[in-house]
Write a structure and sequence with these properties.
alpha/beta, six-stranded parallel β-sheet, 25 strands, about 10% strand
Length: about 900
């Protein structure tokens, strides 16, 4: 079915052989031992650090020695910022004589705060009592402690599902059940609060605004009546307290030195709290990296770093630019990639890490083949003793983009931990109703599947199930749903809908799974999941469409509904058995996570999957129009600056993915995404010196043509002048948001004011556009020499690594004048034929069992003079049924992996 014979190359598809591999320069070897002489006043402190194994470089020493006044410490990826923060705290106490209790260190996670405390406690000469006295806290922990000190006793109400339940109840009470989505309302409320605004001041110029405000004020009243507050309330109320001089001044006197970690992630309200605390003495040290600002959907503001020396004139700026994590070539790839961004502080990281290997690139035909390649290579790496499972991470862009690799890991019994605790793809709330309809088609009395069938019938699940169970006790039916057709609480048209739905359910098991899903979507599901104008592009609708597209792509390989449902159920069963790995701290398991979750982590071996146009950069960043539910918050017209900012954040996300790797980095770029052609990510091509045309798609063209393409017909369906919607700027937009589940995103950085009275700047608009991209649901020594080129032909991992012809694509031009090869789309297809997928006949192994449809692409011939560990002529064992496989041929999409 799939080809596990992956081939990784030294350059991405589309890069000419003459293009050199980016590489970071070597860092100087001097440390504090050479840089701090024994005759210097503070030499004893650095000698004690050295005895403890802490040898600081020049920029780190400069940051640690900083005394009074503001300082911006630009900390590149892997450059030891945690060491600097801990060492400076120790320097202040041991050298400058600062009281430990007067140091406040603020970060974003409890884990980071605990690590900081441990680092400080481990410093030589620091007494345990002093280490405990240093206040290392998260923003929310500091704010909550402040509130508790001043008598605020409300309970924390922060569970999203509970919040959604309350909002649904309030919407129902106000007769607006279908008017707004709880996810949209909560996102807009959070954006409003993170600006420091009171809910009483929510806009109310239009009826929609008044309706939304009524519900949200009801939500605030509900919390107050029950003595509850959410996480936004904690920061908002703490900031309000600090505006009282009687509260603020004692804190300013106590905390004379303030340090902020991950400064690029602070939102407007958090920055305001920091500014107030440091206002009297300005002894503020902020540490962060503007190139790693990837949380703007949570209100993070890149401007905090870019404009720090404007807010604090005379501030020192120190750049930590020596990377101890990655191979010079991995670091060079990331540095060259992110250097294309315009809104950043200029810095070039230097390499001091352990030498590993150059990045490798592959272009599988689709996500299924990508997953097979990656998991097969991981298994070989572990078998050969190169890495334990725990040293390997697989990074992906969105929740749905991990589906295929998730399945392969489970089916191959590879232990893994999926960070974020997401359910199996087929158990997600958006997918489960469709799955349960198919289960009912196989077994009409599958009572566990009934609740999911009631929602799309617009029947209360609890009341509907109770009625069905009561009727079943009196007279059991083959199709228990039929009882609803006689329920007097349903209107006649609803009773007829029940009968029609049962007819559809009866027919599903006779169809192929892909056809069954399409029939359900056509008959009722898309209509059920959407609300308002279906032509309006919204964040949640786009999330739904992407997930449903992935669902359809996943079932194409199955012939019957029964086969597919058994596969999904087996997947869920195996996943439950592996859940214990998540709870084991030191379990030997592959780490599977989004790029966002990987920020701040590092791994010896990283697989970055989905490095294709439409995935990274995400399709939403390539479009001309801001989603309507984003306009509900900022209600502005999109500009070129918004598009540039969205694309720059996507580039920063790619940079974070690359710089998580220490010794080995493998990047895969599927040639198709959800059945549509997809090119290698422009970010990779740019890093190798290719010039990529900046064409953006409108939503309609993108939906019709799939992911962005640079083929011969690349200008078709593009509108270089933009075609963004202007929108009236009211809460009507929220009404039109779809029913998709809200993922890892929230809006902040803007206001809810009407655009005519409160225009927003590009940065504010951008923070909302980022929410449309994210779901809830990141280097090094010598130039590549001849010995390295020789190694490219050696067999490594699960495939043969060798140089290959580059496939220059029309519209991609090397900076140096070179003749480019023909593009994939122009290689053998006539003009205008890009919509027809080209295929080729290849040698494969087919399962000999008539009931099994598995096939594997045969390995390419081993180069002359090279030995192979395995005889490629021996038929492999079928990966699905473990049966015998026989040689054959198969028509497959052309991917140009081998330079033909």
């Amino acid at each position: 079915m799939l080809s596990p014979n992956s081939t990784f190359y030294p350059r991405p598809l589309g890069v000419t052989p003459a293009a050199s591999l980016p590489q970071s320069p070597s860092a100087p070897l001097e440390t504090s031992r050479q840089l701090v002489g024994d005759d210097q006043q503070d030499a004893y402190y650095f000698r004690s650090l050295e005895e403890a194994g802490i040898k600081l470089n020049g920029p780190q020493i400069s940051a640690v020695r900083h005394g009074r006044g503001p300082i911006l410490t630009l900390a590149g990826a892997g450059c030891g910022k945690t060491t600097v923060l801990a060492a400076r705290a120790g320097y202040l106490m041991e050298v400058s004589g600062v009281q430990a209790a007067s140091i406040l260190l603020v970060t974003f996670t409890n884990k980071a705060a605990a690590e900081m405390k441990d680092r400080i406690a481990a410093l030589p000469g620091i007494r345990p009592a002093a280490a405990r006295a240093v206040q290392a806290r998260t923003f929310h922990s500091f704010a909550l402690t402040l509130l508790r000190h001043y008598g605020v006793q409300e309970d924390i109400f922060g569970e999203p599902r509970a919040q959604h339940t309350v909002l649904k109840m309030l919407l129902r009470q106000n007769g607006m059940s279908e008017a707004f989505q709880p996810e949209s309302l909560l996102a807009m409320l959070s954006a409003w609060k993170m600006q420091g605004s009171d809910t009483a001041d929510l806009p109310e110029k239009t009826q929609d605004e008044r309706d939304a405000k009524r519900v949200l004020l009801g939500y605030e009243t509900w919390k107050q009546d029950r003595g509850k507050m959410d996480f936004d309330d904690i920061l908002l109320r703490a900031a309000a307290l600090l505006r009282d001089p009687a509260v603020l001044k004692p804190l300013q006197r106590r905390f004379q030195y303030i340090m902020v970690d991950e400064f690029q992630d602070t939102n407007r309200l958090q920055y305001e709290i920091v500014q107030m605390l440091a206002g009297a003495h300005r002894n503020l040290m902020v540490v962060g990296d503007d190139d790693q600002t990837i949380y703007t959907f949570n209100g993070a503001r890149q401007e905090s770093i870019l404009e720090f020396d404007k807010v604090y004139p005379g501030a020192r700026i120190v750049t930590l630019d020596i990377n101890y994590r990655s191979d010079a070539r991995i670091l060079g790839l990331g540095s060259e990639l992110v250097a294309r961004n315009k809104r950043r502080r200029d810095k070039r990281l230097r390499a001091a890490g352990q030498r590993g290997d150059a990045p490798r690139f592959a272009t599988p035909s689709n996500a299924e083949e990508e997953a097979a390649w990656v998991v097969h290579q991981i298994c070989q790496q572990v078998e050969e003793g190169l890495y334990p499972y725990r040293d390997i991470a697989i990074l992906h862009r969105t929740a749905s983009s991990s589906r295929a690799v998730f399945e392969q890991l489970v089916l191959k019994d590879v232990p893994f931990v999926q960070h974020g605790a997401a359910p199996v793809f087929y158990d997600q709330s958006l997918i489960k109703p469709l799955m349960d309809h198919m289960r009912l088609s196989l077994n009409p009395r599958a009572m566990d599947a009934l609740p999911s069938a009631l929602g799309p019938l617009y029947v209360s699940r609890d009341a509907g199930l109770e009625y069905i169970q009561r009727c079943e006790q009196e007279q059991a039916k083959k199709y228990p749903l039929i009882h609803l057709s006689k329920w007097d609480k349903l209107k006649p048209f609803q009773q007829e809908q029940v009968k029609e739905r049962i007819k559809l359910i009866k027919s599903l098991h006779k169809l192929k799974p892909i056809n069954a899903i399409q029939e359900m979507r056509r008959h009722f599901y898309d209509k059920y999941m959407e609300s308002g104008d279906p032509s309006i592009f919204t964040h949640y609708k786009e999330t739904m469409l992407e997930t449903l597209d992935e669902f359809e792509a996943a079932v194409k390989k199955f012939e019957t509904v029964e086969e597919f449902v058994q596969f999904a159920d087996e997947l869920s069963r195996r996943h439950r058995e592996m859940e214990s790995l998540r709870r084991a701290q030191d379990s030997d398991a592959v780490q599977l996570m989004t790029i966002h979750r990987a920020k701040g982590l590092e791994f010896p071996c990283v697989y970055w999957i989905g490095a294709s146009e439409g995935i990274v950069p995400h399709s939403t960043a390539l479009r001309q129009d801001i989603p309507e539910d984003q306009k509900a918050a900022l209600t502005v017209q999109q500009t070129d600056a918004d598009l540039d900012m969205a694309l720059e954040e996507e580039r920063r996300l790619a940079y974070v993915a690359i710089t998580r790797a220490k010794q080995h980095l493998y990047v895969t770029s599927p040639a198709s995404h959800h059945g549509k052609p997809a090119d290698v990510s422009r970010f990779l091509l740019e890093a190798f010196g290719m010039e990529v045309p900046d064409k953006r798609k409108t939503r309609e063209e993108s939906r019709a043509g799939g992911t962005a393409s640079y083929g011969n017909n690349r200008n078709e369906g593009y509108n270089g002048n933009g075609n963004s919607r202007t929108g009236s700027g009211n809460w009507k937009s929220i009404r039109d948001a779809g029913n998709g589940s809200r993922h890892e995103s929230g809006q902040s950085g803007g206001t809810l004011h009407h655009s005519r009275s409160q225009p927003a700047n590009a940065a504010q608009r951008h923070s909302l556009q980022r929410s449309a991209i994210n779901h809830k649901d990141h280097r090094e020594m010598e130039m590549l020499d001849e010995r390295d080129e020789d190694r490219l032909s050696e067999q490594r991992g699960s495939g043969i690594i060798r140089d290959h012809k580059a496939f220059s694509t029309p519209g991609l031009h090397p900076k140096t004048a070179q003749t480019a090869s023909t593009s994939r789309s122009a290689a053998s297809s006539p003009a205008g034929s890009d919509k027809t997928e080209r295929t080729e006949m290849v040698a494969v192994w087919k399962c000999s069992s008539a009931s099994c449809k598995a096939w594997l692409r045969q390995k390419p011939a081993v180069p002359s003079g090279k030995s192979s560990k395995k005889d490629s002529s021996v038929p492999p064992v079928c990966p699905l049924c473990s049966g015998t496989m026989v040689a054959g041929t198969r028509q497959v999409p052309v991917t140009n992996r081998f330079g033909k």
